[in-house]
Structures are given as C-alpha cells and as structure tokens.
Amino acid sequence: MQEGVATDSVALEALEKLGPREKWRIVKNIAVLGIAFMIHFTAFHGTSNLQSSLHSDGSLGAYTLACIYGSLIVSNLFLPVLVIRLLGCKWTIVVSFVAYMPYIGAQFYPSFATLIPSGLAVGFGGGPLWCAKCTYLSIIAEAFSIATRRKVRTEYLIVKFFSLFFVFYQLAQVLGNLISFTVLSYGEVESAVNGTVIESSVNISVTCGANYAAPIHQEAQTAIDLKRPEPEQVNRLTGIFLACMVAASVSVALGVDSLKRYNMVRKSPGNRISGMNTLVITLRQLSHKYQLLLLPIVSFIGIEQAFITADFTKSFVACGLGISYIGYAMISFGLANTLAAACTPYVTKHLGRRLLILVTYVFHAALIVFMLLWTPTNEYYKYSIIVACWGLADGVWLIQINSLSGILFPGNEEAAFSNFRLWEACGSVIMYSASSFFPTFHKLLFVLGMMTVGTIGYGMIELMEYRAKRIDPEKNFEVVSQEPHDS
Predict the structure, then answer these.
(1) Which domain holds residue 170?
(2) N or C: which end of the chain has fewer CB within 10 A?
C-alpha cells in the first residue's frame, strides 16, 4: 500500500457515512472552485494582459509582471506547505485571493511605488494558492475513486478533474478580455465590425510583430502610438475587476467544503516534514530524476505564457492595432485554451499521451516559425487566429504537465506542485525581465529552443518508463486507462 493513502475498506466505509450523494458533492466542490478561479482570474488576466502596453513608461508594466513571478519563486520555496498546514487548502485559497486585490487596486494610481509592492503581494499569495488548488483536486480525486469503488482509476480522475477545473479557469481569459475590450474600446466598435482599425502613421509591417525592437533599441520607433485609452475607462475597468475578486473570495469561503471532510482518504505519515522546512522538501524533490527532467518543459510553460501576455500583446497587437484591441485578440486565446482543456482528456484517450505531446510540439513549433516570418497588418482577425493557435497548444501543455506532476509523485503532491509553480515562475521571470532588452524575433527563437529541450526531457521520462515496464509488466504509467485496479 502506498504511504499516506488509507486502505480502501476504511476510506469507503467513512465515505458511505457521509451519504450516497457524496460523489455529486465532490463534483459540486470542483465546480464551485473552478467558477471562483474563473471569476478571480477574469480580473487578474484582464489586468495583466494590459500591463506591458498600458504601463510601458520605464517598462513599469513588464517589471511589475517580473516582480509578481519573482516573488512567486520565493513563495513556492517557503510558503505553500506552511500556509496549507496552518489554514487548510480551502482557507489558503481564500486568503491568497485576498492577496491579489492590492494589485488590482494599484491600477487606480499606477506607479513604481504602488505596482511593485502589490505585484510582490500577488506572488506571495500565488505559491500557496496554486499548491492548495492542486492538492485539493488530487485528494478529492482519490475520494471520488474510492466512492465509486475504484471503477475509475485515480490517475485518470486526476487528469479529468484537472481538465474540468481548467475549463472554468481558462474561461477567465475569455471573460477578462471581453470585459477589457468592451470597456476600453467604447466608441471604436464600428471600426472593429468593419474588419479594420483606424490607420496608423506607423509602418506596421516594418515595426511590429517579430520586427518589434525592445524599448532600449527603439530610437527609430519613437513615433509608435499605442493608442492609449482614456484614464476614466481604465478606472472603470479596474473597479469591475476588483469586484470580481471580492466575489471569488466569498464563493470559496461559502461554497467549497474543507478537506477535513475527506481526512479518511489519506493518512498523515508520521515523518511528514514541518511547514518551516518547505524549502527542504521542495529542493529534496529535485533529487528525483523525473522531477529534474520535467524542469525544462515546466519552465517553458512559464516562458511561453509570459511571451503571449507581455510580448505578443505589445509587439503584435498594441503596435499593430492599439491597446484597446488587446482584449479582443486575447479572447481567442481564452476560447482556444478552454477548448483544449475540455478536449485534452478525450484526445489523450484515443491518441495516447506521447503522440499528443509530439503533435503539440510540431504544431507549436510551426506556429512560432510562422510568427517569425509573418508580415503584420491592421486586420484584427489575423491576430486572433495566431493567438488562438497559441492557446490550443498552451492548453495541452498545461493539462498534460500539470497532471504528470500529480501522477508521478502520489502522496508527495505538495512538493511536486510547489516545484511546478517554482520553475514555471522562473521561466516567466526570465521572459518578463528580457522584455525590455531583446527584440521579439530573438524571444521567439528562445521560446522555440526551450520547448525543444523540454520535449526531449519529457521524452526521456517516457523512455525510462517504457524500459521499466518491459522489466515489470505490472508497472503502468498510462494516465488514460479507465480500467479498475487489479487489487
């Protein structure tokens, strides 16, 4: 029996005492949690997608985003286990939601004095938030599996539950950007309906897209007008987003069950490390060869998400169309992400994980090559197609690699997910910090290189598991099987 997991008979008996409809209560918890994250990150994504363009003076927006993910690194090293054991997963999520609110409020008075400290607060809240979410989903997946008498494998349920959660979560991109576009583009809708935007005096095909130079090299681009919205529009948008975050916190506090309800699923090992040693257990996790091989692909996820948030929105959309159209273009990203989150488990079931990741790599690499060669125009739908394709690939990467962190290290999810967020944040910090110094062309090449290295690392895990299975036929690393355990 795996350490930290209760026997099926004891856990099943305890679950049955809770009532015959406990399975539906578990589904309700996932739905409420997903909706709360959707509402919360509607505000966060809608705000963050505008940062590098809206606060471009002195690269304030890019540095704010770098601070968010820089503090997330520290947060992941020291806080998740400590906060989760102090508050529990549910209340960790609530408190972490509150930590994001000053960042939204700072948009009323944007400056280095307001945005940088509030960005640091977001990062410190983000580590416990995501670790608590991942741990919560993994444990209730085990509870659901036991409640169904192992008719569905826990590994499959983890993927399924992560997928259901990310369907809600990725809708935040759609809602956040829809609200952003509606508020900031008021008065410009007619031009969007006609298919083009007002002509700019800038030669878009020469100065935008992969040709966009970093601010430090922009002497020749001082004439670029990012078509900023009015301050009143920005303040109105900020007020809406702040209300969203308050609603999300209340939803989790009132609508999600504490994991104390499912204490029977997993015993607490006597040798669990205390919360003060989170750094130790996070770094100790790196001694596992699988964790080391996952680091490049996890870092790549942070890099590609930072690129699409900061560099694509500024060098492609804001440069070619204007800041108000960032929300419009990024709606496609959210829709594609949601579609990928919903379909990935089913596609994985038929194609297999290895083939799906290979196809995703080829697709994403082809998209990057296209972006390197593409000549930007002022036709808004072309930007939407590009970012939608990126969203499809991102959705697959996010689901598959997140799920692997739960499947490869059962019983040690806190350290595994802490490492996931740690190295994802490292990738984001690198990309945000480079935003002010390197041309978009070079950053696209960097994204492609990291994706290649990460995919090779993942392939080595699959190869080692294939060899191990030849030695021990009972060993099963497949996440798509729905067959019950033999035991």
Answers:
(1) 1-192+206-264+273-471
(2) C
How many domains is the chain partitioned into structurally?
Answer: 1
- 412 CB-side CA count, 13 A: 21
Q: Which amino acid is at 428?
A: S
- Identify the helix (H) or strand (E) that includes residue 485: none
Q: From CA 300, how far away is CA 293, in angstroms rounded?
A: 12
Burial class of residue 197 (count of CB atoms within 10 Å of its CB; 0-12, 13-18, 19+): buried
**Domain containing residue 429: CATH number:** 1.20.1250.20
Q: Would you call 283 exposed, middle or buried from its count of C-beta atoms within 10 A (0-12, 13-18, 19+)? A: middle
Radius of gyration (Cα) for the chain, nearest Å? 22
Structural domain contains residue 200: no
Model pLDDT for residues 249-305, shown as the tens digit of each residue? 999 999 998 888 776 555 444 444 444 566 677 777 777 888 888 899 999 999 999
pLDDT less than 70: residues of the chain:
1-20, 56-58, 147-156, 186-202, 214-227, 263-279, 406, 410-411, 413-414, 472-487
Whether 477 is in a domain gets the answer: no
